[in-house]
Amino acid sequence: MSRKAATDFYAAIEKSAGLLDVKCSRAKVWPIVTAFEDALPKAAILFRVATDTRHEAELNCHLMMLPGDVDPYALALSKGLIKNAGHPIDTLLSDIEERFPVDSYGIDFGIVGGFQKAWSCFPGDSMQKLSELAGVPSMPRGLAENIDLFARYDLAENITLIGMDYEHRTMNVYFGEVAECLRPQVVRSMLREMGMPDPSEQLLNFAGQAFGFYATLSWDSSKIERFCYSAITRDPLALLDRVDPKIEHFLKTIPYGGDDPKAVYVATSPADGEYHKVQSYYQWRPRLVNHMHTSVSDTSD
């Protein structure tokens, strides 16, 4: 059953990549698919495309898995998909596991870039505090140094998951929804304090419909590198005022999850400005999907 799931999933990746004119290398993708094949039958699986320059000519695959199925970093390391470089990010997932309840895991890989990310998701009824997470030995110092900023917007005590980007050596901290933070004047104020560009009208309108957001930090600086708003919709083209041709093509040609909701993101950063990401489900798993939406209220940079 696991090998059939892996074969079917790889075929879907190859087909989707072809529709988007993204080159798919079996030598790079198949080892990732088979490394996680035992988790595939029960996982929620998504395809994602983004419009920033870092993700140009790339198609990402995102898996959400129940705990006990796999320790994603340990498995990726054992299969040679990632190397331990002696960086704090290499121990962040295990440090979190030792100190906090983990309800589910996620991974992200690019069909061009290979294995990239892992997530540890906290239970929906057990959101964590930044003050406690900042005490994790491998956590970047920027998390502690931005606690006061996040606290001013009532974000410091409702952390839903932590993401680790091994490729870029950054981490994401995801916040539960705070309605006040979705108001245009608060969006402007918060992004200004983070050193982000002034938000466009599209970002302001999108933020008002978002169910959650996350910040990206690195170990090299205390500055927040990126801030992203997340929304769920069955019709992303109606949700976004302006749709990048790449996103529109993805939505019109991807052959999976036609009637399922899509996860839509608008991100902003000093380096890249504003850009979009859209996730479409290849395999829907209500238990995991509902938890993911609650967690990021809930996978990506």
TrEMBL record:
GO terms for molecular function: prenyltransferase activity. Pfam families: PTase_Orf2 (PF11468). Keywords: Prenyltransferase, Transferase. Belongs to the aromatic prenyltransferase family. This is Prenyltransferase. It comes from Actinomadura viridis.
